[in-house]
């Protein structure tokens, strides 16, 4: 049976859960379970039992097969990026190549989410200056070696980038990134002098 975080991930993937993936069975998680049960002809009691588990895994596996990824029944990073990237392609990106987002350790991990790259494309257009990726995808090993980085960093899931816009003050870059957070297209942005130099961090949900 799926653990609580896996249930939350799957329910979020299906658009039924909007909270944090925290492993806590709160009202939001129970409500999402009830809605899933309602939509799939199950007893609506908010209890995550064997029948609910089997149906949720079945549906996620089908979604994964449609996306062409490993059908393991858990909508993790690879599955969510595949879904998001199916809506866009690198042909929709004007100013970046996938190789620019590869993990700096040389492991080859470069599964960047194209929704994020599209935002960076727009930032490049807005300022009319090259956008340099100082950190894109990170494998867990490389991420663990970065000063001040969280073990749950969105760099690990290909949903974060640290950027420098050439000839543009980072305060202006940060202000522009905050517009994306305010609009809901980005989740979080910040800059940190001691760890990041002139770079600005931006990530998506």
Question: How would you sum up the major sheet?
Answer: 4 strands, antiparallel
* CATH class placement of the largest domain: Alpha Beta
* Coarse structural class: alpha+beta
Write out the strand line-up for the largest beta sheet, numbering strands in chain order.
1-2-4-3
Percentage of residues in DSSP E strands: 5-15%
Tally of separate domains? 2
Given the C-alpha coordinates, what overall shape results? elongated
Distance between the termini: 26 Å
Helical coverage, percent range? 40-55%
Task: Name the poorly predicted regions.
Answer: none
Taken in chain order, the helices and strands follow as HHHHHEHEHEHE
Total of DSSP H or I helical runs spanning 4+ residues: 8
The name of the CATH topology of the largest domain is: Muramoyl-pentapeptide Carboxypeptidase, domain 2
- Number of DSSP E strands: 4
CATH architectural group of the largest domain: 2-Layer Sandwich
The residue-averaged pLDDT reads 95
Q: Specify Rg, calculated over alpha carbons.
A: 19 Å
């Amino acid at each position: 049976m799926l653990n609580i975080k896996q249930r939350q991930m799957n329910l979020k993937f299906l658009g039924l859960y909007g909270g944090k993936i925290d492993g806590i069975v709160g009202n939001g998680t129970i409500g999402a379970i009830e809605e899933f049960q309602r939509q799939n002809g199950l007893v609506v009691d908010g209890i995550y039992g064997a029948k609910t588990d089997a149906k949720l895994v079945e549906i996620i596996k089908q979604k994964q097969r449609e996306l062409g990824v490993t059908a393991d029944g858990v909508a993790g990073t690879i599955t969510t990026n595949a879904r998001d990237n199916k809506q866009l392609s690198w042909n929709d990106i004007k100013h970046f190549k996938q190789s620019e987002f590869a993990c700096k350790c040389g492991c080859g991990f470069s599964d960047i989410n194209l929704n994020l790259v599209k935002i960076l494309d727009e930032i490049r257009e807005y300022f009319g200056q090259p956008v340099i990726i100082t950190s894109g995808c990170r494998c867990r090993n490389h991420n663990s070696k970065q000063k001040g980085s969280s073990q749950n960093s969105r760099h690990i899931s290909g949903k974060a980038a640290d950027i420098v816009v050439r000839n543009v003050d980072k305060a202006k870059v940060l202000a522009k990134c905050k517009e994306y957070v305010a609009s809901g297209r980005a989740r979080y942005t910040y800059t940190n002098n001691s760890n990041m130099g002139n770079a600005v961090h931006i990530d998506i949900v």
